Amino acid sequence: MLAADNADWSDEDVNIVMSRAQTTIGGPETFKWILPVWLGRSAADPSYGWMTVSEVLADKLDRAGFDDWPVAQCAAILPLLTDWLHAQETAFPDDPYAPEGGAVFRDWLTARTA
């Protein structure tokens, strides 16, 4: 984590900060800072073993006050969230937990994109 730009971090470092953002590492600003990098990487390589799953992501977004973010920030993140969910759903079609966990996040996302 010595790189100043989180885009230069390893997947492991991004994974750790995302999973602990708002709990043991920083608060909502830390989460907002790591979110775009994490979304891009985890959508590109869903099988990596990312620690943050869809229902946890919805909770983290709520705890970060997503509904109160500036419109431009929400507009920038919503397509990334949609792409991320699609990547998760198509990467693990036989996962018995995917429909249940995915539904939680899908409902969260639908409420904000409808």
Q: What is the tally of beta strands?
A: 0
Strand content: under 5%
| Number of helical segments with 4 or more residues | 5
- Note the gap between the termini: 38 Å
What is the average of the pLDDT values?
A: 89
Structural class of the helices, strands and pairings?
Answer: mainly alpha
Can you walk me through this structure?
The protein is an all-alpha fold and 114 residues long. It has one domain (6-113). It is built from five helices and no strands. The protein has helices spanning 11-20, 28-44, 54-63, 71-91, 98-113. Helix 1 packs across helix 2 and helix 3 packs parallel to helix 5 (98-113). It is globular and about 40 Å long. The model has no long low-confidence stretch (mean pLDDT 89).
Keywords:
5 helices; 114 residues; mainly alpha
Produce a short descriptive summary.
The chain has five helices and no strands. It has 114 residues and is mostly helical.
Annotate the secondary structure layout.
Layout: H1 11-20, H2 28-44, H3 54-63, H4 71-91, H5 98-113
